[in-house]
Design a protein that fits this description.
The protein has 4 helices and 3 strands. It is mostly helical. The longest helix has 14 residues. It starts with a helix and ends with a strand. The model has no long low-confidence stretch (mean pLDDT about 85).
Length: about 90
């Protein structure tokens, strides 16, 4: 890969999480199961959040969420935590 692709790979997770390296209130283990609550999001949500909601139609681990949507595990932990805070997934 060239330098530009490597830079994108490093920057993208930072952008997805809004610069956060951990969730402020929810700390999820890799084996934590998440499942959608069926509630509809209020307003627009990030593409990755929508992909997680799709993946969580059935109970799925945070590690599996990361694999299914193609993000690093730490990013998935933060994003699933966001959805749990919003009441859109139950962990």
């Amino acid at each position: 890969t060239d330098g530009h692709e490597a830079d994108e790979a490093l920057v993208r997770p930072f952008v997805i999480t809004g610069g956060r390296t951990r969730h402020a209130t929810v700390h999820l283990r890799v084996e934590t199961l998440a499942v959608g609550t069926g509630l509809e999001p209020r307003g627009a949500i990030q593409f990755e959040h929508a992909a997680i909601l799709d993946a969580c139609r059935q109970p799925v681990s945070v590690a599996e969420v990361a694999a299914r949507i193609g993000v690093p595990l730490g990013v998935a932990q933060i994003l699933v935590g966001d959805l749990a805070d919003a009441g859109l997934v139950r962990v």
